[in-house]
Design brief:
This protein is an alpha/beta fold. It has 14 helices and 13 strands.
Length: 501
């Protein structure tokens, strides 16, 4: 019989940690008082306006606790990108449980009073938004910006050889153009000089009111689709918590070992052959562990779990008890002590210091920023002694300037040029005197300026050309985006701040 990855004690603690994250998530959605249910729940304890999203949240909580385990086991430098829209309660709750939220916001303390503030602030005037936002420590991706999570994750991994970016992709998000194209980013990731991206497709079946495309195609077709994109997919499927914990733990270890093996082979043998990077498909119920049936309608596992599954107000008085039962199903008395502090034996499951995903310096803008070495712009001036006496191209001159920026920053590897196949057509030819285009797919005899380690990133999708550099500045790097619009060359320097900064 195959040995289970998690021993009974660790399994129990991880499930308790998951219950705590789910409890905090529901509390953020509903409560403004009585955070530990130490007294019977009253309507006055519930927010007068309920706004938020539950459906994706328990799955993301599940992922977070399992990532915490492998971070500790392998001492990983890893952070979390949350792509599925408004999964804010999950990330905020987990950043609170690991202690980062209280360090950044000392008024939200690790006790009953802090829990009350944590709950009340969510989607509340003067508080925080209902999605992962710049206010969320450890976030480089705006939660409502569907489609760009994977391109942001790759942008963060470029030139960060020790970093792994865990990117949760919503199955609804996967229907957007930017995300569908972003799967191809693995053709631009160098296993020697870059980090890794671990996509986790969160296949919970539904968008707001419709099924998702990827959830309704056959398992074999989905597997073939992802393999066709160049990935090796591992499936975690089910709804029974104990079995899912064991399966997720085992699969996650396999994917981490696969990443380490790919990188070790590439770096020891200087092997730039494009690898088949691993990814995970988490197939779990929408609104997992939430209300199963409300007013005769199935909630868990349906589109009805997407946003607020229970309307708790004066028009639905019986729903108050349903909410209380739902929150008590997570057994908060087993998770928090009398003062409201998360039990130490459970809190120890989270990584420490900067290994916490909410505290990772790669995901908190400005902490790793390095100045870009710049040439003196004056030497690129075109001398025009009289009107019409000189013929010159501003784009060619700009190419010379960018060439020298690339050259000056070659050793510190913190500058790239991004564009939709227009570096040459935009007359920035001089750049290719010192670098090539990064390209990990196969090459043929007549190709030009393609190499496994180049500072120019070109893909015809402008979504990716915009998304990749947005993931880069948080990690101390810079770049520019070049594009041709109506026969005019535009140059946009990437911001040196991060969406969370």
């Amino acid at each position: 019989m195959k040995t289970k990855t998690l021993c009974p004690e660790l399994l129990h603690k991880m499930d308790a940690y998951w219950r705590a994250a789910n409890y905090l998530s529901v509390g953020q959605l509903y409560l403004c008082d009585n955070p530990l249910l130490r007294e019977p729940l009253k309507l006055s304890h519930v927010k007068s306006m309920l706004l938020g999203h539950w459906g994706t949240t328990p799955g993301q909580n599940f992922i977070y606790v399992h990532l915490n385990r492998v971070i500790k086991k392998y001492d990983l430098d890893m952070f979390y990108v949350s792509g599925p829209g408004h999964g804010g309660p999950a990330i905020v709750g987990n950043v609170y449980l690991e202690g980062t939220w209280s360090e950044v916001y000392p008024n939200v303390t690790q006790d009953k009073a802090g829990l009350k503030k944590l709950f009340k602030q969510f989607s509340f005037p003067g508080g925080i938004s209902s999605h992962v936002a710049p206010t969320t420590p450890g976030s480089i991706h705006e939660g409502g910006e569907l489609g760009y999570s994977l391109s942001h994750a790759f942008g963060a991994a470029f030139d960060n050889p020790g970093l792994i970016v865990a990117c949760v992709v919503g199955d609804g998000e996967a229907e957007t153009g930017p995300l569908a194209t972003a799967w191809h980013s693995n053709k631009f990731l160098n296993p020697i000089n870059d980090g890794a991206v671990l996509p986790i497709l969160h296949l919970n079946g539904y968008k707001i009111a419709n099924p998702t495309v990827l959830a309704r195609i056959e398992h074999e077709e989905l597997d073939q689709l992802l393999r066709g994109y160049g990935w090796t997919p591992y499936f975690v499927e089910g709804d029974e918590p104990e079995e899912m914990h064991q399966l997720m733990a085992s699969i996650l270890e396999q994917t981490i070992e696969s990443i380490r093996q790919i990188q070790s082979n590439a770096r020891k043998n200087n092997d730039t052959t494009r690898p088949r990077w691993p990814m995970i498909v988490l197939n779990s119920l929408k609104g997992w562990t939430g209300p199963k049936v409300v007013d005769g309608l199935q909630i868990e596992g349906t589109f009805r779990a997407h946003q607020i599954p229970l309307l708790v107000d004066s028009e639905h008085p019986d729903h108050l008890k349903l909410l209380e039962n739902w929150m008590n199903s997570y057994k908060p008395e087993e998770l928090f002590d009398e003062s409201g502090r998360f039990l130490p034996e459970l809190a120890e499951l989270a990584p420490k210091g900067e290994r916490r995903m909410g505290a990772n310096p790669h995901a908190n803008g400005g902490l790793l920023l390095h100045d870009l070495l710049m040439p003196d712009f004056r030497k690129y001036a075109v001398n025009v002694p009289s009107p019409g006496s000189v013929q010159a191209s501003d784009a060619h001159v700009l190419g010379e300037f960018l060439r020298d920026v690339v050259n000056l920053n070659r050793e510190q590897r913190n500058f790239r040029i991004f564009g939709p196949d227009e570096t040459l057509s935009n007359r920035l030819n001089a750049v290719f005197e010192v670098t090539n285009r990064q390209w990990e797919a196969r090459t043929v005899e007549n190709d030009e300026f393609l190499a496994s380690d180049g500072r120019v990133m070109e893909m015809l999708s402008e979504h990716q050309c915009e998304g990749w550099p947005r993931g880069a500045p948080a990690h101390g790097r810079h770049g520019c985006l070049t594009a041709m619009k109506r026969s005019c060359t535009s140059l946009i320097q990437c911001s040196t701040s991060t969406p969370s900064g």
